[in-house]
Design goal:
Blueprint: H1 2-18, H2 21-27, H3 30-39, E1 46-47, H4 52-62, H5 69-72, H6 76-92, H7 94-104, E2 107-108
Antiparallel strand pairs: 1-2
Helix pairs in contact: 2-4, 4-6
Length: 110
């Protein structure tokens, strides 16, 4: 019984992290954030690499709902939860994002 619970927990965390703002901007390539945000026609033009997960989520809130709203732009309540979690993850990886901000600049969306 405990192994099923652990398996379910690990799978749930993996699925949630796949949609996490920090994952989409830091771990995956810049093109993923650019593609996702351009699909929902957000008004954001750039995302700073420092606290990029939080910025990504705010840009999701500023976008238009699309036909694939459940896959690209989840419901606002989940985005607010993700903002809190992305803020925590962004703080942990802050030294790395400061370095990439200095060397690469902002993530350009347009």
């Amino acid at each position: 019984m405990k192994s099923k619970l652990k398996y379910t927990l690990v799978c749930s965390i993996a699925v949630f992290l796949a949609g996490c703002g920090t994952t989409n901007t830091v771990i995956r390539g810049d093109w993923v954030a650019k593609r996702n945000l351009n699909q929902i026609e957000t008004s954001c033009e750039t995302i700073p690499r420092i606290y990029s997960g939080v910025s990504y989520d705010i840009c999701l809130l500023r976008g238009k709902p699309s036909q694939m709203a459940l896959w690209v732009a989840p419901i606002p309540q989940l985005i607010f939860l993700d903002i809190a979690l992305s803020g925590a993850f962004d703080t942990v990886i802050l030294p790395y994002t400061v370095y990439t901000q200095i060397s690469n600049g902002d993530i350009r969306l347009k």
